[in-house]
Amino acid sequence: MITDKQRELAKKFSNMHTDSRMFVLPNVWDAGSAYVFEKQGFRAVATSSAGVAYARGYPDGKDITIDDLALCVEQITRRIYVPLSVDFERGYGDNVAQIKDNARNLLCCGAVGFNIEDGRSDGTLDELSYMLEKIKVIAELKEELGLDFVINARTCTYWLNVADENTKMQIALERGNAFRNAGADCVFIPGAMDEVTVTKLVKGIDAPLNIILNPIFHDFARLEKIGVRRLSVGSGPVRSVYHYLIDIADDLMNGKAELMLNHPFAYGKANEYFTK
Length: 276
Hints:
Blueprint: H1 4-16, E1 23-25, E2 27-28, H2 31-39, E3 45-47, H3 49-55, H4 66-79, E4 84-87, H5 96-108, E5 113-117, H6 128-145, E6 150-154, H7 165-182, E7 186-188, H8 195-204, E8 209-212, H9 220-226, E9 230-232, H10 236-253, H11 258-261, H12 267-273
Parallel strand pairs: 1-9, 2-3, 3-4, 4-5, 5-6, 6-7, 7-8, 8-9
């Protein structure tokens, strides 16, 4: 069921994309991680498909079902009071009708935004016409449910490195503008891109632009000045957490406990932190 509170969160999230300032959108994988980012002051959070998979003991890919994702969304939205966008990958369905039903289900679990992408597991892109169909049927749910949620349409042109630099730019611009015309509220182009590339994308796409934090160009002030509106962090947080967890496991196997014991986040402090 769509609630009035969810409608308020959806409107708040939508307005963040039309603001003149860039916002950083941290990617989470469970209710605890979402709670942390909310408590530390972030105005919205989004799931990471990789994070959701890792938290369930799987690699990023095909092992997570729509039911797994719906449970994750329900658990997160039950615990936080900020907007949640969901990494919907390619829609978890074999046709647009099934994808629309899946989107409806996630909205009824509390989501107020989606990433929907065109990248296939074989390193190619969906046909543009099929991607546009997906965007259009998901957009139909706005009126059907009376919910102004955000559609963040992603092209994996740079993420999958599908062509040479000039061709990638042409594909990204064509798809980004087509996504917008089909009903997308924001266009997401992840990948390791330099400042010149990001600038061209901002100027060439008639929609708010979302990019991902990457090692080539990550100057927050410059990104905002260029005109990027939404900055995602992807699987960076969850990989960092599991990096330290693996180190703790290795230490314990070798009879060491310093890394686990020598930190200030004591039991009492942890309980206090996770108390609203």
